[in-house]
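Comment thread on ticket #2218

A.B. wrote:
> Attaching the input chain for the structure job we discussed in standup.
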Amino acid sequence: MMAPLHCRLRQRASARPLREQQKNYAMSTREIIKTTCPRDCYDGCGIAVIKRDGKISKVLGDPDHPVARGALCGKCAVAYNGVWLDPEARLTRPMRRIGPKGSNRFEPISWDEAIAEVADKLKSISADQGPQAILHTHYTGTCSNIANSFPERFFSVLGATEAMPDSICNNAGHVAWGYVFGTSAEGFDPRQARDSACIMVWGANPSHSAPHVHKHWLKETPAKVVVIDPVRHESAAEADLHLQLFPGSDAALAFGLMHIARRDGLLDHAYIAAHVIGYEDVEADIEAATPEWTAEKTGLAIAEIEEAARLYATGPSLLWLGQGLQRQHRGGNIFRACAMLPAFTGNIGKPGAGFYYLNGSAGIIARKGVAPEYHAPEEEGEPAPEISQMDVPDALNDPERFKAYMVWNCNPVASNPDQAKMISGLERDDLFTVVVECFPTDTATYADILLPAASFLEFDDLSGSYFHFTVGAQVKAAEPMGESLPNQEIFRRLARAMGFEQPFLHRTDQEMIDKALKTMDCGVTWDELKEKGWVWGTPEPLNLWAKGTFPTPSGRIEIASAAAEADGHPRAPQPTVDDHPSEGRLRLLSPAGKWLMNSSYGNDPRILELMGQPTVAIHPDDAKRLGITDGQNVTLSNSAASLSMTAVISDIIPAGALLTDKSRWPGKEAQHLNVNALHIAEKTDMGESTSVHGVEVSIAAA
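C.D. wrote:
> Ran it. Output below, let me know if you need it in another format.
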C-alpha cells in the first residue's frame, strides 16, 4: 500500500539531506597515515589512521602490518576512537592548583608561567636540600622511544632521585636473568617458532597482554603449546596442555620437570659441559624432585607434569617467562629455577629454540653495541640515587625526605602499593607535585602544576615491540590538542629554564630519529619508514646465542652464580614452595584484565561499560566452605584495606586463591579505591620489586 502524499513528501525531504551527506562524504578528501601503537604490550601493532578533510575519523589496524593484520585489539580499538580523540577528556592547557590537593580544582596558566614556576621550585629545592630531595617517577604510559626515554636526560643532569621504574612491574626477573644469562633483554626471535616443536608459556597471559600473539602467533605455529599458569585464561584454555599449579610452587615445578628430563635421558650433557656452570650445584635437588613430590607441592597431576617435561625437553622448544611469574615473594628464585630448562636441555642457540623475558629496547636491537640516540646519556660521576616503587608511599609521607614529586608516563595512585598511604603522601601541602599527562588521572588531582602531554597521534617518534623484532614509525597524524606538547618538548623547555646547556638536552626529535635509525641499521630512512609504517629489525630470523657465549663473568650460563651469592642470595636456585595462606585467608592474584592497558583506558566510558563492576573469582570449594554464592557482594580485607566486589564462582583459579583484575581508576570506583588498596608493599627476593601476587586477604559475604 502506498503511503499518503504528506508522508511521502516528508520521506523525500528527510532523504534529501542524507543523499547530500553521502555525496559530500564521497567528495571529501581521504588520507591514510601509517603509525605504530606505543602501548605497553608485546604486540607493537601497526595502525592506519584514516583522515577526512584533515580530521581523524577512524583509528584502525594496519592491514599490511605482520602483527596487526588490519585489526586493533578490542581495548585499543575502543580507546583510540574514544577518549584519545575527545578534547573534552584530554588535558589541553597547563594548570595550577587553586583548591585543596585532591579537589581537582585548577586554573589555566600559560606555558611560560608553568615552566618558570616548576623551574624556580626545582632550583630552590636543589639549592636548599639538594636535588636528591626531588623524586621523579615514570613508567610505560607511552613506550615510543623518544617520549619514553628523553625526559630521563633532564633528571640525569638535575641529579634527582628516581623511583626505579621496573620495581613496580618486573625487576625481580631482570635481576635474576642478569645473574644467569648476563642479560634479560635479548630473548628469542618469535619468527623461530616455525622450527619449534614446543612453546612453553609460563606465567604470561597473551590473551590479555599480547592479544595478537594469542590470536595469530600461538595458533599458527606447528609447535605444541604448553601454558603454565594458576589462571585458566583464554590462552591457557586453548593450549595443547595447561598446567594449573598453585601460586608460589613454580620453582618446585621447574625442578620436577628437570627430574623427568634427567631420568628419561633428555638432558644435553654436551651443552652443559661446554656452556653452563652449576649443574652439580642443583643435581641433588633435581634428583629429589620426583613426580610424586612435584605433584604434591604444585597440586598438579603426575601425568601432566610428565607430558610437559617430555614435550619441552625433546624440543626444539621456546620458553617464554611472563612478567606476572616473578611478581611473587620468591620471584627471582623462580626465574633462576626456570632458567635450568633451556640450559640443561640445550634448547638454546638453534632454530626453534630459545628463552625469552623481553627483547631489547622496545624490541629494537642495536647489535653493534651502541646505545640508540634516544637513551639517556651515560655521564661520569656518581649515579643519581634510586628508591624502589615499593618504598614510595612511605617516602612521600616523610616531609624531611622529598620536597618535590614529578610524575610522567604513569598514574601511581592507581598502580602503586599501599594506596591509602600513597594518597596521604600526595596530600602534603609542602610536597610540590608536577604531573605530565594526557588525561586528568587520579594522580593528576593531587598536582600543584599540571602539564598537558600530547598523545602518540600528535608527534613523530619511533616505536616497536618488546616481543617481535619490528621497528615502527610513530607518525604525527594531527596537531596536539589545545596547548599540549610532547614529553620531550616539555623537558627541553624545562632544561632551558633551568639553564642546562648540555647539547643532548636540546636535540630535535628529527635529529634523534635519524641518528637512531642509523645506529640500528635497519636499511631505511625516516621518510621510507613513514611510508611503509614498519620494517623488520633484521631481514631474517635471528638465532640468538648460537655461539654459546653469554655476557656473564664466565661467558657461560651461570645457574650457579658467584655474583648472586655476593649479593646475599643462594649460589644456585632452590626448589622452594610458598606456604599456603593461613587459616581464613586466600592468595589474591590481580593480573592484567582484558579491557585495560595497565591503568590506561580506565577513563573511557565504553571501556568502563565493558568492564562492569569489579569481580573476584573464587573456586567452588572455597565458596562452599565460606558460604559464598555466585553474584553475591563480598568484602576482601587485610591489614591495608577492605574492598567490596562481586563474587564469581569458577574453577578458573585453584582452590586457595582468588582472581581479580588490576589497575581500575580509583576515582571511577564506588569506594574510590582499586585492588592496590590491598597491596601491602612487600618486596621480592631480588630487585626490590613488587610481590603483588603474594598478597593474602580474607573474603566474606558483605
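A.B. wrote:
> Thanks. Noting for the ticket: The radius of gyration is 26 Å.
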